[in-house]
Every structure is written in structure tokens, then in C-alpha cells.
């Protein structure tokens, strides 16, 4: 991670030096850095900064080379800012130093800046001319007579065009030469022009330090009828005229003429190439047709090969224009697939130079030199051309997620996103992800980060402006505002605030316009614009809308999910807010075009006054505000202590282009600021202001769930988390039934629970406690801990929970007429009031067995042995079973059993089971419940249990996940049998004596609210006692829960 270099405001010389950079051993020149504003404290140290690797533009950086010599080259280099450009530079190959040559004449005239010597022509302004000694860097003024024009510099010879007089510059009388450094300014006239030569339109088109080539015509009527080339000896001024008609092309200043140390070549109007020896310019020549597809505008010479480039147009022409070498016989051979159109002879006979490469990131000034054995020329790199970054037009930053909108030259615009480091150490090279493109964007498109992974922006839709929430290249939600003008004010999660109209200046509202709140996640058919009101300042934090009111200093709050009014807060402002921003605990307000602004701490109520803001607005961070000072430097005001500190410069390397959310932005879910520099490189700097505690901005935690639907919960985080864990607990044992965990998380934690344990078993219906813990990623502030509960229904009912879905057991009682009553457990060890039903009554010999869910409706059902049949009755959740309740016949032959009871899930497979005793043998049989809600074939688990007067299934007594049995023998001793994984039982264990005095026992499940399976017992006097279980295989002392009258029931189940 490198600190940024300081730059001055005169950036053009620096641009050329740094962007046309890499000769080995060369170092770019630096301009004198501009002083940072003296009114501000010291800037943030540059160490905690990350430089984002830019996207390189698909098109190469355009470098127009006008002259090349052995020592360096003259060029105009495309700047990253289209507002800059047109300046000529000289770059020295040996040192890499670059110096400005001024802006020239604005036309691509050959040798205007000089070729083939140690001197360069400098035009620093209108009427300001100088000659620079490239060896020493010194400059001497160049006086150009008022009756002449400067036409070029060849070696140490200056070429001038002579007019009739300074008043009559439309008539040219000739040309003359002058030596650099000649104190007398001796003129050497150019002689040899033929009679009738068109002197006024004659132009220098080729040459070196010993000769010049001037192109001219002889027509008295058509000045562009260029028929001749004049080869001028620079020592004497004597011209040799060559009959060489050439096309004027797009400019008379550019000609298809090349002059090397030993040859001269040109292309005539019929696209034929002519090559002659320089020593015999009027002698024999080689000639051949220029192949189709090659441009006749420029050529070069390398030995006896001619260079030309392909014809191509458009913004990406350089990537489609080949460099071709023509053999002495005119046979073409491609040297390079991609090249710029300019071909320059290298003064001194060293070949020719062209700019090209394989791609925009592999672009160089190349030298073509003679090939071995007379073969095709070879290419050598002279200097790398640094690529241009795509133009960053807007950017957003939220929860460490950087978003940009970028323009690839004259091609497409696209969105990109980076995940930046959010740990305390900000290092690495984050990789970008494309997030799609948009055709109908506004000229300026500020970006917002919603905090949940979305980039939010405006785009033109079919009926006006749309609010777009973009997650990826394939996922983008759109909401039409129905407005033709307006701006985004905020975005958070699923919500965005849109302000209609076009304000006259920043920081004001538009009278008569509206404020809209849109829902980017609106369900199909539901309204997407959820709130519409007269325009007022508005901001979002999670699901809460903060909006200004007509009362100065008063801000309303609304829950956008429920529509509930959450009351108002008082900011202490004495003006009506025109802008609001909110981040975590901080509410920012501004009015009077940011002339007055402040912050309210929503936790403590502290009101913090801020100094006057920038007229273009600032952005709120966690404990600070960032804006631009008068010199366009970013400045930060830190108020996290409750008092605003003096503003300090945040980035002082150079003034930053662009307004907020276009040229720079703030991460309101963290402590970073992102900005783009003048070269469209993006940098992220961490402010050093301590961030607040990790909290939730919004949460969706449904209080109930049906297993069929699942539980979908989410928590919007106030800043990134390093890791998180959600646990769901059994409310009685506090054992986790399911855990979810994740690593680094930005924006939102999302959990979907299917109502099953980690082993894949469905949890019983009932209430479960959840707890979310998350650690701060930045290591600052407190970690997150929140908790709640969710009630599960529609799944596997808790054994004996027949009503209420409350995990409490119920007791069924059959009276002497066959009517059934139900008593609900009250959660405190007792029973609630009696519940009855109006349906038909059972036969009094019926045996009822409260059972599990037999039809997957999530309700506990009841088995009944009616006569010889076993029926599965389905009364429905919370209803008392009657003989009229719907049922399914499970089979006949059940009259052979004198005991039918359910211990719950005896084998621990997740299904409720049935245990019976055969009357004749006393043998015990196990019927396992199945996944399809039936009973498996019986398995004998005990022999001759006739010694027991009572056998009762009582649920899981020791929390091993299996249901257990109790038996009372003839002596009144209570024995306990634990269930096993096979459905059998362990050897019996004595629980205690004295149980013979009870006329009925029933395992009712948990009625005391502790998750342990309790027991009720009725004595012979009709009293009912509860025995709270310990969950360790034993019971506590009995508690009277029914004072009498229970002996009116024939049986308790």
C-alpha cells in the first residue's frame, strides 16, 4: 500500500511525465506541489489508505508522436480529463524527463517542434517563441519576423516562409533557412522552385538534419493540386524538384512522404508507391501498387522496406489498424495488429517509429529496424505508454463495499463493485465484480449504497425516472417514480427516498414538489411507492424514515414496515431542515444551503453544532462529516466525542474533481472515505475516527413460523461483522437445537430455518429462544448480542401437547357416560379449567391414548381402542376429541390388549410410539411410529408383566431423547423402565413405595414449564396430585392440584 504523491495544480507536465513513463532507469519529473490550505490542521496520515487497481480503458491512451530522434521524441499525450490536452512534450529517452513544448500551432505540421537535432521549438503562448537546448534545458527567445512564418526546425536549421510584407501575408515570395545560434540571423534562401510553383501553399512534409522535403503544386487555380516534391539541401538551400503528384488527403500538412538516410519514398494519387535512392532523386525508382486496405496518408522507410498502416475509423480504430511492411517487391507483411496512424522517421537513419501494441495495457512507442538478411523489419520497444483508467463518473461506499459507475472511453458505461478489507489491517488487492450496465442514465448519476449489497441510482424509464437497486449484473429492481426530474436523497436496505423536481442550487428543496419513499422489494401487486408527501428533508436508517417537519428543529420518525408513528426528535436547529442524513446513532441536519448544520446523538440526545459547510454539501460518517473546502480539498470534522473538533484536511495530495457521490463518498457503515483523483484512480482512506458499537439497524424476526413455510429472519448491521452465530435454544433445557454461523458479513445477516435440528429431525412445536451474536470486523466498539423467540407450529407436536402449541401437556378424562374432558397444563405444575366438546360420546370401555401427529397437520392426535378396533382420531389443534371426530381405522384385534399407552418417542427416532400388554400372557409389545404416520409391526419387549397393576407411558424422564415407562406392582411399588434405541426397555429400577393408594396414574408431559415430563395421580378419595419430574429419572414431592371430585371420571389418560 503506497501513499499518494503530492501534486500541484499545474498538472499537465506531470501528466505527460507519469503517463508516458517507463524507460528502464527513467523517473518521471514532478511538478512543484501546491500548498495545502493553511487554515486547516494537519491531514490524516497517508499510511491507512488503499489504492484500488483501476479498470483500464479498452482503448489505448492516444499518443500522437510528431518527431523522434535518437535522444527522445516529441508527442501530445491524451489526458485522463478531456478538459486537458493539446500540449506538446519532449521526453528524453536516457533520463525519462519530460518537458513541455507548449501548445504549438494546433496543427500536425511536420517538424514544428523540431527533428534530428539537440534543439526543440517551444511555443508557450501566442507570440511567445523559444528554442530549447535539449542537452542543457536552457531556452533562448526566438524572434520571428512579422513578415514571415516559422515552418519547422530540422537539426539546427530553421525554415521560414517569407511573405511579401508584414501587411501582405497572403502572398508568399519564398522560403529561407536560418541556423540556430547564428547571432546575425543570416538567411539562406531556398532556391530551385520551378516557374509557377505555388509557394503560398507549399509545406514542409519530411526531412532530417541535412535535408528537407517541401511539397507544392503548380496550378494557378487549384492550390491543392500538389504535383511536386522539393528535396532541399539544408547546407546550401538548393532544391532538387521531383515530379511526384500526391494527394492532399485530409490536410496539406500530412503527406505520404518519407525520407531516410539513403532513400526517399512517396505514394502518388493512383496509390502507387515510389522508392528512389536519396543520392539520385531523379534517377531510377522501384514502384508498386499500395495494397488495398492500407492507408495512403502516411508511410515510413526502414532499409528498402516501406511501412504503412491499415485504414480504420471510429473510437477503437487503433485496435483495428495494423502496421504493415512492404517488401522491395511490394509484398505486404503485417508487423503489428494494432497501431496509431502516425509513422515517424527516426532522425539519424535509425529506422522509423510508431505507437502500438497488443492491447490498451500493452501499448508502446516502437522502433522498426532493418531485419536480418534483408528480411522484414523488426520491432523494438522504445517506451511504454501507460494505459488510461476508465472514467469513474460516480462512486458509493457502504459496509466496505465500493461501487463505481465507469465510462470506457467512447464505448459503454458499466457498474462495478469491490469488497474492501474491513478488518483493522487495510491491505490486499480486492478484485472487482461487474454489476451490469444501464443504457438510459442521466448525465450525472450519483450512487448510493443501501448497506445490504445494493447499489442504488436513478435511470430513465418508460414514464420518467426509475429508482434502480442493483445487486448484480442479472439482478436489479426498478421502481418508477412517475417524475421526469428529481434526485435521490437516501437509500437503506429495501427503501429509497426520491425528491421530485430540480433545485436551483444544492441544499434547497423544490416548492410544490413531493418526497417519495419507494420499496425496492415490494411484492408483486403491492405498491412500490409506499409514501408520498409534500417535499421535506428525509433520510433512512434501516426501516425508519426520518423526515423534517414544518416546525424548526423537529424531525419525525416513521416505521416503514408497519406505518407506525415513532414520534419526533428535536435537533435544536433554529431553521427548517433542507437536508437530513442518518448513520447509526447520529442524525445530521442542514439548512440555508449548508450554512447552518449540526448533529444529534440519538442515543444520548446530545446536540452538536458544526461549522459552516461546503456549498456543495457534505456526507455523514460514523462520528464525522466530510465535505470540500474552498480549494476543493476534502476536509473532515470529527464529532464522535460529542463536540465538534476543528476541521482537518483529509486528502491533500491535490484538489479533487467532482461533487459528493460522484467524485468522493463516505462509508456511513464504517470509517472510510473513497475518492477519485485526476487520473480516475480510486483511493480509499480510513479516517481514524473510532466507529460506534455494532448494532442492528433493522430486524425481521417473525414471532411465529409454520414448519411448512420456514423461518426467514434477517438483521441489518450498522457496520461489518467479522463473524456471527445464531443459536436456537430449547426454552427449558437451554440446549441448542440448531445453530447457524457465518464469517465476515457486510450489511445483513440472513437465516432460513426449516424447523429441524442439526441432525435433520423436526423440532417439536412450541416456543424457541434465538440469540444472535456478532463480532465487530474493525475491532472497535462493542460486539452485537440480541435475542428473541419464535413459536413453531405445523410441525411435530410436543408429546401430550394437545392444545395451545405451548409445549405444555394436557390430561384427558373419560367420564361414566363416555364424554371426554381436557385439562390443559398451566406451566406451573397444575391444570387449567375443564374443556369439553359437544360431539358424540365414546363407549365407556374406550381406552384413549394421547398420541403424536398421525396426519402431518401439526396437531397432536388421539388413539382410541374402541371395542376390538384401534382408531386414530384427529380432533384438530386445541380441540377435545369426541366419537364424532374424524378418524382413521388402524386395525382390528386390539381387544387382546389390556394396557395401551404411549411413552412418547421410545426409540429416539423422532416419532411417537405405542406400547401394549397382552391380556392373556402379560407380554409387552412395542409398536414403532413411522414417518408415514402409521405403526410398524409389533416387537415383543417384555414377557409376563402381569405383576403390574398399572403400566403407564410417562415420556422422557432422563433427557436421553427416549420415552420411558412406569409400572406399579401389587405391593404398591413404583418401578421405572428407560426406553432404548430398539424400542425395548432397560432393567427396572425401584422408584418408591406407597403407590398402591392411587386409582389412576397418567404421564401428562410437562405441565410445570421446565421441560421435564410430569406425572399426575388420583387417590381413592378423588384428589389429584402432581408429581413434578426432575429430568433425572425421579420425581419431586407430590403437590395437590385437584382437591376433589376427580373420582367422577371413569379413567384418566
Automatic annotation (TrEMBL):
<dbReference type="InterPro" id="IPR025965">
    <property type="entry name" value="FlgD/Vpr_Ig-like"/>
</dbReference>
<dbReference type="InterPro" id="IPR028994">
    <property type="entry name" value="Integrin_alpha_N"/>
</dbReference>
<protein>
    <recommendedName>
        <fullName>FlgD/Vpr Ig-like domain-containing protein</fullName>
    </recommendedName>
</protein>
<dbReference type="Pfam" id="PF13860">
    <property type="entry name" value="FlgD_ig"/>
</dbReference>
<keyword id="KW-0732">Signal</keyword>
<dbReference type="InterPro" id="IPR011048">
    <property type="entry name" value="Haem_d1_sf"/>
</dbReference>
<dbReference type="InterPro" id="IPR013517">
    <property type="entry name" value="FG-GAP"/>
</dbReference>
<feature type="domain" description="FlgD/Vpr Ig-like">
    <location>
        <begin position="709"/>
        <end position="777"/>
    </location>
</feature>
<dbReference type="Pfam" id="PF13517">
    <property type="entry name" value="FG-GAP_3"/>
</dbReference>
<feature type="signal peptide">
    <location>
        <begin position="1"/>
        <end position="31"/>
    </location>
</feature>
Amino acid at each position: 500500500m503506497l501513499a499518494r504523491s503530492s501534486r500541484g495544480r499545474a498538472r499537465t507536465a506531470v501528466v505527460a511525465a507519469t503517463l508516458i513513463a517507463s524507460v528502464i532507469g527513467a523517473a518521471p519529473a514532478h511538478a512543484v506541489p501546491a500548498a495545502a490550505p493553511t487554515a486547516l490542521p494537519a491531514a490524516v496520515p497517508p499510511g491507512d489508505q488503499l489504492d484500488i487497481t483501476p479498470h483500464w480503458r479498452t482503448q489505448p491512451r492516444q499518443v500522437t508522436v510528431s518527431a523522434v530522434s535518437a535522444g527522445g521524441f516529441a508527442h501530445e499525450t491524451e489526458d485522463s480529463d478531456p478538459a486537458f490536452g493539446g500540449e506538446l512534450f519532449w521526453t528524453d529517452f536516457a533520463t525519462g524527463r519530460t518537458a513541455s513544448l507548449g501548445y504549438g500551432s494546433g496543427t500536425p505540421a511536420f517538424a514544428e517542434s523540431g527533428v534530428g537535432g539537440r534543439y526543440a521549438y517551444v511555443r508557450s503562448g501566442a507570440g511567445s517563441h523559444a528554442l530549447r537546448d535539449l542537452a542543457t534545458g536552457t531556452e533562448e527567445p526566438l524572434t520571428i519576423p512579422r513578415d514571415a512564418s516559422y515552418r519547422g526546425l530540422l537539426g539546427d536549421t530553421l525554415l521560414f516562409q517569407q511573405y511579401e510584407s508584414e501587411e501582405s501575408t497572403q502572398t508568399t515570395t519564398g522560403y529561407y533557412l536560418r541556423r540556430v545560434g547564428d547571432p546575425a540571423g543570416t538567411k539562406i534562401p531556398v532556391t530551385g522552385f520551378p516557374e509557377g510553383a505555388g509557394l503560398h501553399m507549399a509545406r514542409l512534409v519530411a526531412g532530417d538534419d541535412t535535408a528537407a522535403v517541401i511539397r507544392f503544386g503548380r496550378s494557378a487555380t487549384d492550390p491543392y493540386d500538389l504535383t511536386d516534391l522539393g528535396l532541399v539541401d539544408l547546407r546550401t538551400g538548393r532544391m532538387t524538384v521531383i515530379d511526384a503528384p500526391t494527394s492532399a488527403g485530409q490536410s496539406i500538412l500530412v503527406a505520404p512522404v518519407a525520407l531516410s538516410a539513403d532513400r526517399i519514398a512517396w505514394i502518388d494519387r493512383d496509390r502507387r508507391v515510389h522508392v528512389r535512392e536519396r543520392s539520385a532523386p531523379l534517377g531510377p525508382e522501384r514502384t508498386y501498387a499500395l495494397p488495398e486496405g492500407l492507408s495512403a496518408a502516411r508511410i515510413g522507410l526502414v532499409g528498402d522496406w516501406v511501412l504503412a498502416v491499415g485504414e480504420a475509423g471510429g473510437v477503437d480504430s487503433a485496435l483495428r489498424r495494423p502496421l504493415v511492411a512492404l517488401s522491395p517487391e511490394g509484398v505486404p507483411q503485417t508487423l503489428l495488429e494494432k497501431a496509431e496512424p502516425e509513422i515517424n522517421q527516426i532522425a539519424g537513419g535509425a529506422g522509423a517509429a510508431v505507437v502500438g501494441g497488443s492491447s490498451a495495457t500493452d501499448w508502446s512507442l516502437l522502433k522498426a529496424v532493418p531485419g536480418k538478411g534483408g528480411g522484414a523489419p523488426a520491432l523494438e520497444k522504445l517506451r511504454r505508454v501507460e494505459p488510461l483508467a476508465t472514467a469513474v463518473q460516480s462512486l458509493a461506499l457502504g459496509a466496505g463495499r465500493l461501487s463505481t459507475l465507469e465510462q470506457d472511453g467512447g464505448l459503454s458505461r458499466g457498474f462495478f463493485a469491490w469488497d474492501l478489507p474491513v478488518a483493522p489491517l487495510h491491505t490486499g488487492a480486492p478484485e472487482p465484480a461487474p454489476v451490469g450496465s444501464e443504457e438510459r442514465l442521466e448525465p450525472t448519476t450519483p450512487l448510493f449504497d443501501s448497506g445490504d449489497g445494493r447499489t442504488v441510482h436513478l435511470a430513465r424509464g418508460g414514464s420518467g425516472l426509475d429508482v434502480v437497486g442493483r445487486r448484480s449484473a442479472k439482478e436489479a429492481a426498478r421502481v418508477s417514480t412517475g417524475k421526469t426530474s428529481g434526485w435521490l436523497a437516501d437509500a437503506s436496505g429495501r427503501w429509497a427516498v426520491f425528491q421530485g423536481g430540480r433545485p436551483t442550487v444544492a441544499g434547497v428543496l423544490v416548492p410544490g414538489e413531493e418526497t417519495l419513499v419507494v420499496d425496492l422489494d415490494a411484492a408483486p401487486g403491492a405498491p412500490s411507492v409506499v409514501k408520498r408527501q409534500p417535499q421535506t428533508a428525509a433520510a433512512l436508517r434501516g426501516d425508519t424514515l426520518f423526515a423534517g417537519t414544518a416546525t424548526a428543529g423537529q424531525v419525525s420518525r416513521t416505521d416503514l414496515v408497519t406505518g407506525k408513528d415513532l414520534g419526533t426528535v428535536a435537533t435544536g436547529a433554529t431553521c427548517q431542515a433542507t437536508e437530513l442524513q442518518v448513520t447509526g446513532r447520529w442524525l445530521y441536519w442542514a439548512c440555508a444551503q449548508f450554512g447552518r448544520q449540526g448533529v444529534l446523538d440519538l442515543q444520548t440526545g446530545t446536540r452538536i453544532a458544526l461549522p459552516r459547510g461546503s456549498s456543495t454539501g457534505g456526507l455523514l460518517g460514523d462520528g464525522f462529516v466530510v465535505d470540500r473546502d474552498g480549494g476543493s480539498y476534502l476536509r473532515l470534522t470529527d464529532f464522535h466525542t460529542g463536540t465538534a473538533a476543528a476541521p482537518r484536511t483529509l486528502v491533500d495530495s491535490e484538489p479533487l474533481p467532482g461533487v459528493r457521490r460522484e467524485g468522493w463518498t463516505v462509508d456511513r457503515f464504517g470509517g472510510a472515505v473513497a475518492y477519485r483523483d485526476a487520473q480516475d484512480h480510486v483511493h480509499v482512506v480510513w479516517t481514524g475516527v473510532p466507529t460506534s458499537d455494532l448494532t442492528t439497524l433493522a430486524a425481521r424476526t417473525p414471532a411465529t413460523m409454520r414448519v411448512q413455510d420456514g423461518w426467514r429472519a434477517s438483521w441489518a448491521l450498522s457496520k461489518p461483522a467479522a463473524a456471527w452465530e445464531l443459536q436456537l435454544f430449547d426454552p427449558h433445557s437451554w440446549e441448542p437445537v440448531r445453530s447457524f454461523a457465518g464469517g465476515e458479513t457486510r450489511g445483513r445477516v440472513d437465516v432460513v430455518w426449516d424447523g429441524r435440528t442439526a441432525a435433520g429431525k423436526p423440532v417439536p412445536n412450541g416456543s424457541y429462544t434465538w440469540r444472535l451474536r456478532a463480532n465487530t470486523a474493525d475491532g472497535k466498539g462493542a460486539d452485537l448480542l440480541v435475542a428473541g423467540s419464535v413459536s413453531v407450529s405445523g410441525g411435530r407436536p410436543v408429546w401430550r401437547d394437545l392444545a395451545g402449541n405451548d409445549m405444555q401437556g394436557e390430561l384427558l378424562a373419560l367420564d361414566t357416560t363416555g364424554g371426554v374432558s381436557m385439562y390443559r397444563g398451566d406451566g406451573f405444575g397444575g391444570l387449567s379449567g375443564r374443556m369439553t366438546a359437544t360431539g358424540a360420546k365414546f363407549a365407556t370401555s374406550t381406552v384413549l391414548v394421547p398420541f403424536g401427529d398421525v396426519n402431518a397437520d401439526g396437531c397432536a392426535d388421539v388413539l382410541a381402542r374402541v371395542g376390538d378396533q384401534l382408531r386414530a382420531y384427529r380432533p384438530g389443534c386445541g380441540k377435545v376429541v369426541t366419537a364424532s371426530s374424524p378418524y382413521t381405522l388402524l386395525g382390528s384385534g386390539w381387544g387382546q390388549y389390556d394396557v395401551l399407552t404411549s411413552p412418547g418417542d421410545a426409540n429416539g427416532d423422532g416419532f411417537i410410539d405405542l406400547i401394549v400388554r397382552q391380556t392373556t400372557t402379560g407380554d409387552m409389545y412395542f409398536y414403532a411410529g413411522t414417518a408415514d404416520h402409521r405403526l410398524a409391526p409389533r416387537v415383543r419387549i417384555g414377557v409376563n408383566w402381569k405383576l403390574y397393576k398399572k403400566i403407564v407411558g410417562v415420556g422422557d424422564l432422563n433427557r436421553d431423547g427416549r420415552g420411558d415407562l412406569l409400572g406399579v406392582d401389587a405391593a404398591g411399588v413404583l418401578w421405572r423402565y428407560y426406553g432404548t434405541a430398539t424400542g425395548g426397555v432397560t432393567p427396572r429400577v425401584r422408584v418408591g413405595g406407597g403407590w398402591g393408594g392411587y386409582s389412576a396414574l397418567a404421564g401428562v408431559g410437562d405441565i410445570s414449564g421446565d421441560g421435564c415430563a410430569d406425572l399426575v395421580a388420583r387417590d381413592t378419595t378423588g384428589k389429584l396430585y402432581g408429581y413434578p419430574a426432575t429430568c433425572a429419572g425421579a420425581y419431586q414431592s407430590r403437590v395437590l392440584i385437584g382437591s376433589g371430585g376427580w373420582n367422577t371420571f371413569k379413567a384418566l389418560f
